[in-house]
Amino acid sequence: MSAKPAPAPLLIACALGIEHLALRTSDRSGADGPVTVLRTGMGPRAAERSVTRVLAEAPLTEAAVLATGFCAGLAPGMHPGDLVVAEETRDPRGNVPCVGTELLVKELVRTLPGRTVHTGPLIGSDHVVRGPERSALLSTGAIAVDMESAATLLSAVRAGERPVAAVRVVVDAPEHELVRIGTVRGGISAFRVLRSVLPAFFEWHRSLLLPRR
């Protein structure tokens, strides 16, 4: 009997220490395969450097990649603690389609009942977006913006064919703008939501390991 192949690893990438803390202190018992949580540092360049480096070395060369953390909502009516599941990520260098969006939505709704889940394009920026700039980005069709997801996924697919996705937690929105992202440390609901998302991520990863019919 041939040996069962080892499960493909899962790389979960975030930027901030507070995001890494939320993910690192979450329950990982439902993982099906090795999971690495990578803190990339803030900004697209830091994300690109970190993701490219870790995917160049075993055992992560064929890892599925999921970008996560906090984001700014662009659409009126979004609230801190809402979830954003990207259908694609965008930045000036290109668009990257996400895999398994419908499954992620289903699992997040099941894992976090009562939380609103938004789907649509997630756009990248090289700075924190405030005020009128939100409206300009919303007019492109994007529903949320962050600084690392687009760079993370673009770097991941450039390093080799693999499943990629992005799930973000809204930390500020048009009617709930924060002075600075560091205020999440004060106990905002986004931190608690981020601590609870790993089961949905593991189900997404598990679905990728199933044989295709």
Describe this structure in words.
The chain has 213 residues and is of the alpha/beta class. 31% of the residues lie in helices and 25% in strands. The chain is built from seven helices and eight strands, in the order βαβαβββαβαβαβαα. It has helices at residues 17-24, 44-55, 101-111, 133-138, 149-158, 189-194, 198-209; strands at 10-14, 35-39, 64-73, 83-91, 94-97, 117-124, 144-146, 164-172. Strands 3-7-6-4-8 form a five-stranded mixed beta barrel. Strand 6, helix 4 and strand 7 form a beta-alpha-beta unit. Helix 2 (44-55) runs parallel beside helix 5 (149-158) and helix 3 runs antiparallel to helix 7. The longest helix is centred in the N-terminal third of the chain and has 12 residues, at 44-55. The relative contact order is 0.24. The model has no long low-confidence stretch (mean pLDDT 88).
List the helices and strands and how they pair.
Blueprint: E1 10-14, H1 17-24, E2 35-39, H2 44-55, E3 64-73, E4 83-91, E5 94-97, H3 101-111, E6 117-124, H4 133-138, E7 144-146, H5 149-158, E8 164-172, H6 189-194, H7 198-209
Helix pairs in contact: 2-5, 3-7
